[in-house]
Specification:
With 172 residues, the chain is mainly α. It contains 5 helices and no strands. Bound molecules: MU-OXO-diiron. MU-OXO-diiron binds next to helix 1, helix 2 and helix 3. MU-OXO-diiron (FEO) binds next to helix 1, helix 2 and helix 3.
Length: 172
């Protein structure tokens, strides 16, 4: 059985991960509307990964005897004035999620819940990768996104991203 506070934080994190998926689909909707189908694809794949994160946490809670409850998923409220805006929001959001996971990690550490810390290790690593991906996208956009040809090439590169279910992560 998990500590109540840790269970509640993880349950809350399930909602945050579903919201992440929702937010990234909103980015994808925007890019699709702008005719940037590669960017739309990149975020659609990202949304699938976020759903996986939610499902992993849900599974962990269930496997530890916790009744999972779902809260409302907030409406994404971003306004995109230029093509780089969603990329900036994406990095900001990943930093928020990393901080949120770090809080759960710290709470687990405080009560010596090593099992949860071990479970969260995968997410800590994953967040590092996701922040790096978001930073790389911003860099590429700054370098190449300024002219039509560069944007076209970048869009093509992002169109190649394919979803693959994680093979090394916690069970879903
Ligand atoms: Fe699941 Fe990108 O945080």
């Amino acid at each position: 059985m998990l500590d109540k506070k840790i269970a509640d934080m993880l349950n809350e994190q399930v909602n945050k991960e579903f919201y992440s998926a929702y937010l990234y689909l909103d980015f994808a909707n925007y890019y699709a509307d702008e005719g940037l189908d590669g960017f739309a694809n990149w975020y659609q794949v990202q949304a699938q990964e976020e759903r996986d994160h939610a499902m992993m946490m849900r599974r962990y809670l269930i496997d530890n005897g916790v009744r999972v409850t779902f809260g409302k998923i907030a409406k994404p409220d971003k306004t995109y004035k230029k093509h780089s805006d969603a990329l900036d929001f994406g990095l900001e959001h990943e930093q928020f999620v990393s901080a949120s996971i770090a809080e759960i990690y710290a709470a687990a550490n405080e009560i010596k819940d090593f099992k949860t810390m071990q479970f969260l290790d995968w997410f800590v690593k994953e967040q590092g990768e996701e922040e790096k991906n978001a930073e790389d996208l911003i860099k590429k956009m700054k370098l190449f996104g300024g002219d039509a040809k560069g944007l076209y090439m970048l869009n093509q590169e992002l169109a190649a991203r394919v979803y693959a279910a994680p093979t090394n992560g916690p069970a879903m």
